[in-house]
Amino acid sequence: MYDGDIASVLITEDQINEKIAELAKQVGGDYPGGGADLVLVGVLKGAVMFMTDLARALPVPVQLEFMAVTSYGSATSSSGVVRILKDLDRDIAGRDVLIVEDIIDSGLTLSWLLKNLASRGPRSLEVCTLLRKPDAVKVDVPVRYVGFEIPNEFVVGYGLDFAERYRDLPYIGTLDPRVYTS
Ligand code: 5GP
Ligand code: MG
Ligand code: MG
Questions:
Q1: Atom of ligand 1 nearest to the CA of 80
Q2: How large is the ipTM?
Q3: Were 68 and a residue from 28, 86, 165, 178 both cysteine, which residue would form a disulfide, CB within 3.0 to 4.6 Å?
Q4: Model-level pTM?
Q5: pLDDT in tens, 141-156
Q6: Which residue ranges form the domains of the chain, and what is each CATH number?
Q7: Helices 13-30 and 48-57 sit at what angle, rounded to 10 degrees?
Q8: Ligand 1 within 6 A of 159 CB?
Q9: Helix/strand/coil for 95
Q10: Which ligand approaches the C-alpha of residue 157 most closely?
């Protein structure tokens, strides 16, 4: 698949699965259940693979909600000015909410999302991201769960795209520069 487009595999399918098991254990311990179900808020489309695998690995019942947002900026970096394309289907007031993200780069999108969701009065609001890049430290966003810290390279696979391609790869890799320039 995608012959020759992937320059290197950064995180293998096995490594992703191991990490999800670890994160699920951690999250499960922090939300013992008993009250209303934890609400996972996935940010479309990048977080879909991670969200569905995490949901199945979690030892507590969860409800799935999705949001789609667009940030004004170039294709590979965001400006922090965000517009909602698809909002949550349900009210999250009084609920435990966990935002599920694919990757935090500048952190601007997430910073906006946290403020937006916090204003709806959830009981608690935390973030779980599969990947985090070094620039994320520049914006002060509290991220409780991080899968992998990765170098400042453009990655694809496991939900992450370049021009809507490569989301279906089961691993995370870097793109051959030929792909950007052809
Ligand atoms: P930021 O944290 O800069 O506001 O933006 C995060 C979003 O930018 C991610 O949800 C993702 O859509 C995109 N993004 C950032 N870094 C990468 C990357 O290395 N690969 C891909 N495919 N998307 C990225
Ligand atoms: Mg995202
Ligand atoms: Mg994208």
A1: 4
A2: 0.95
A3: 86
A4: 0.94
A5: 899 999 999 999 999 9
A6: 14-152 (3.40.50.2020)
A7: 60
A8: no
A9: coil
A10: 1
